[in-house]
Amino acid sequence: MVTSCTSDSTYKRILKLVIIEKRFRSFWERFLHSCPKLLFMKLIYFLAFIFLFSCSETVEDRCFAGLKEKLTFYQEKKPFTVDQILENKPDYLEIIHLKRYRSFKQDSIESIHRYESDEVQEERWKAHQKEYKVFKDYFSDQFSFSQKQQVGNKLYALGTNNLGFWLLAIENNKASAYFLGLSFSHYYINTIQQKPIINGGFIELEGSLVKIVKVPGLPGYDDYSAIRDGNLFRINLKDLTQDTDHDGYNDIFEKSFGLNAESNDTDGDGISDFDDLNPMFTSSKNKFTELYELLIPQYGDTEGNLKKMYYTFTVFENDCDYFHQISTDYRVLFIPESDNEKTYYVKMTDVTSYTISKIKKVKNNSDQYYISESGSSYERDYSAEYKNGKWQLEMIGGIDI
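-> structure tokens emitted (401 positions)
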């Protein structure tokens, strides 16, 4: 986000600096008189200080929209080209262009089974549930499972969730999940793999480079279009399983989402990242944090099962400090609004499903605000009033797509 130097809060800071400058004018005159050779350099330093201070972003800038500033909503990102995907691919990933391969079209058609009867599809589903029961016992509903493979005393499978692709492993009654860092926005993994996925210390997955296509008339539904078939995505298992801080998340996951791969407690709140529902920021209580807590998705978990879902996160793109300080019943991650501050993964991958806007103040009423939320197929505008220590929300507009 680019912060303008012409906001109301900035003008106030500049005015304060001018007052300070007047108070110390006599000091500057005496100092500069005694050191005439330093006049030019001192003046440059002083002006640079004023510029940096006046343009530095504050909580006010990050959390509140100006009176004339429009509230922002979710915006679709422009698909990457093949060259852009290859330029942004992580260093640990090797992509081999195959001469013989299953095309995206062939794999998509053969994996759907659209012409099977309901009875046959039900039998297929039951067989899949039985085959992957051990993974569901360990990981519950955090992933969809495929590509099971036994290597020695370790059982592997490929897992997929809202963040991307994972390698799942079960060994000696202990389960682990390793994030691949392969964006589902750009990497399609064939449903039918022609070879085992674990081979000689590497995970090898056949698939295509793709782009996401929005389907007209079906909001929230995405389809894929292949932009290069015949790829083998290859990652060394040592690179994949590296967990420098021993917190339970591999380095690739932490670096992909902005966690500290060298500290098992990114926010320093005394709770390890693996057990922290908000691992990036320390939770706090204030009225604006409470406002955001009212607007985040509510999943209706009455038994606390979401706290045990260590690999399931809801991701928000927001810079507001108050939003960062929320307390939740499920895991959350935050990514910066500016592409310049994003990690390579979240810059090229759309992992957000919900958006909550900045807070917009109401002129001459310090207890009333406007705020909006949106998802893939809806937008909601609210009037929020803080009254008697509680927020009162009234929906004043919105659309369903």
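Residues 1-12, 49-54 have pLDDT under 50 and may be disordered.
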